Amino acid sequence: GVFYLQPHGPALPQPYSWVDASQLRAVSSLQPVTVHCQEAQLVVIVHRDLFGTGRLIKATDLSLGPAACPYTSLNAAENTVIFEAGLHECGSTLQMTPDFLIYSTSLYYNPSPARNSVIQRTNPAVVPIECHYPRKDNVSSKAIKPTWVPFSSTISAEEQLDFSLRLMNDDWSTERPSSAFQLGDVMHIQADVRTGNHVALRLFVDSCVATLTPDRASSPQYAIIDFNGCLIDGRSDDTSSAFLSLRPRQDSLRFMVDVFRFAGDARDLSYITCHLKVTAVDQAPDPLNKACSFNKASNVWTPVEGTRDICSCCETGLCGVSGGQNFMAIGFPHTGDLSVKEADVMVGPLLILATHGLPRNFPEDQREAMKLVTQGI
């Protein structure tokens, strides 16, 4: 869930072919933050009524990027603050994918306390911003149109294996338009692999870990799935997290996770990184290749498929010593090298709110783009 701004013009490059212009959501007349991605710079326009309360923030409390670049100009008539910065300036970062150049930065609001006051009446906020540019086409300087797109990751392995992880809506029919959640919500997560010309494959989620940064090895972290496919978050007394017992296809797997926050940390953005892998569909599930949930009613671990005994190691965590065959070694008749049959994929950043609601001038269709991160008073 970040702010995706995608250049458009009379001839969209092929990477944009999946964007349906008819589905672009209307933009409200008062946008708290507007971003224009231009050829060599980005322009950020911030309305001083950032929280929709009628209380105007100080322009000097706003900065752009880790380098804390100050604003460029003010528009008194519109009550807006304007930032103009080169794509490489203000501490922005560049990520290159096969199809895109992605420039990332953030808008920071850090309210200064009133003189001689020990309180403040607004929360600090962070608005993540990304500008995506196609690598194989010239970037147009024409007007751009924002599209709110949920962030999910897709890792392409050799021989046309594409692993993906997506947030879905409650009935699993479409991808969820927002990655903002409140405590008490349930995340619906779907893992998929596109198999290309391979023999039929079955997908498993080997592990999933939640972190406060995109680095899955960072601390603190929380294991949601572990021990080669045990959804251990569902073992806790206060959760209903589980795999769905029916797959939509053998190369797809769904699971639900009760929303949570990291205790004692003010950050509201988190990331979930999962390790996905495949086996041949005719290979029987085993302790190393399984999808097991804890059934609280019967107090036992149950698999999506296979016999119940393959889940017994979920209680001990000793699933790697079961004697089961390694999925990389069997079940793939082929010619040539088989390369990657597993990948780490990530969904995030997820905005986890402890209280209900965002500022009222953040319409539902823009929550994916504008992430106000409450840091505490």
Automatic annotation (TrEMBL):
The keyword Glycosyltransferase does not apply. Keywords: Cell membrane, Cleavage on pair of basic residues, Disulfide bond, Extracellular matrix, Glycoprotein, Membrane, Secreted, Signal, Transmembrane, Transmembrane helix. It comes from the Eukaryota. Proteolytically cleaved before the transmembrane segment to yield the secreted ectodomain incorporated in the zona pellucida. Pfam families: Zona_pellucida, ZP-N. One of its GO terms (cellular component) is egg coat. Component of the zona pellucida, an extracellular matrix surrounding oocytes which mediates sperm binding, induction of the acrosome reaction and prevents post-fertilization polyspermy. The zona pellucida is composed of 3 to 4 glycoproteins, ZP1, ZP2, ZP3, and ZP4. ZP3 is essential for sperm binding and zona matrix formation. Belongs to the ZP domain family. ZPC subfamily. The ZP domain is involved in the polymerization of the ZP proteins to form the zona pellucida. This is Zona pellucida sperm-binding protein 3. The lineage of its organism: Eukaryota, Metazoa, Chordata, Craniata, Vertebrata.
